[in-house]
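Lab channel / #folding
Pinned by the channel admin:
"Please post every new chain as: sequence first, then the structure tokens as a reply. Keep commentary short and put observations after the output so the thread stays searchable."

First post following the new format, from NK:
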Amino acid sequence: MPNPIICPDFLPPELALDLADGRRWLTPCGNGQMVWHEWGAPDRPVLVLVHGGSGSWTHWLRNIAPLRDAGWRVLVPDLPGFGDSYWPEDCVDTDQIPPYLHQGLQHLAPQGQVRVVGFSFGGMTSALWLKEYPQDAQQLILVGAPGMGIKAPERVPLKGWRHLHTDAQRDAIHRHNLMALMLQHPESLDSMTLDLHRANVQRDRMTRRRLSGTPIVADALPHLQMPVSAIYGEHDALYACRMPEVKTLMAQLAPHWVGWHTVPGSGHWVQYEAAQAFNDLLLKELR
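Reply from TO:
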């Protein structure tokens, strides 16, 4: 039986109330358990949202309720090694996560119609998952996914923070990293965003992952047997100045390519920074 959802204490009251009807499930994960979060009636079609690196289900805070209210059963896992999920020590990068997603989905939606939306590291993971287990979903939407073998020429480097001694020092680095990678507009970085990011990176145990810099998604795309599309923020830092190349390559590689969508004025964390535009676009794209 599921337990009630546990919302972070830094959420605004209205957002916490909107998510309060969620349920928390546990599925096997090595010697521990993987945590899944669920909203919506069990007889609805399933939409799995897969979070990004150094994240958790809270990467989707601004998307869950609109998707639930549009008629979806929304399942949002904490991937192994992130959030509240167990970290099997032999699970060191994205390519070792798919069996846990498959196993969890078999527990929670063994017969359902399933669509998968994967953000960033979660997009890589979702592509590998559905390459290995094509029966698990009928559609894949990649959101800001790396792993195409294409790099931005002048990307601002991220900075380390674990060695620092004070909260103020660490928060300064968190702000730098959020603006370097995740967000486009300084006004997007409010206190809730900083609290959310801080809580997530502190629980990231899979810190040695390196496959995002390889063409791992590009290699997986030709094997995907379901419709595939992509949504990216206009100013995604992963592919600055090279977005047309990524778009062309995806269309060439995915045998069931549906299309590419750009959300104007937003950065890498597009579903958070431009939530309304993203939600409207995603709902139109879901099949």
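NK: Residues 167-182 form the longest helix (16 residues).
TO: also worth noting, Residues 3-285 form a domain with the Rossmann fold fold (CATH 3.40.50.1820).
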